[in-house]
Structure formats: C-alpha cells, structure tokens
Amino acid sequence: MTAFEKDLLASVKQAKRGQGRSTVVPVSAATEARLKVGLSQSAFAELLGVSVRTLQEWEQGRREPSGAARTLLKIAMQSPQALRQSV
Length: 87
Hints:
434 Repressor (Amino-terminal Domain), 6 helices
C-alpha cells in the first residue's frame, strides 16, 4: 500500500469516528434570498433589475448591494411570495 493510500484510509477511518475536518461555507444574503424565492440567478437578477454578473458578485461577496437592492433582498428573505407577486 502506498503512502497516499495509507493516508487516505486513515482519513476515512477518522471521518467515520466523527473526527474528520469539516468546512463550513457561508452563504451570502443574496444567495439565501434567491434560494428562498426559488429562482435561477438569471431570473432573480431580472426580477431585481440587475445583471447576472452583478448578482454573482453579490453572491460571491465581491460587491455589496445598493440601498434599493438591499431592501429588495430583505423583502425576499421575509416574504418570498410578496416579491414574486410584485412582478
């Protein structure tokens, strides 16, 4: 058995014992809002009146939404159906 295989086997055993490393990936407010509304990136971007690229940058944490967009995201989080019905 190679060193890689031994290391892999040890990692699997460690994970089974609950001692494995876990990684938590934070979800942005924009992503959470979009998922609550249940739309694709392109449909949600169109609903908000922004480009898909802008939405992607919000979701990846590269940019922050403006005041109006931030308000729409809050509405989407609190009442997804209200946002969908408004369009």
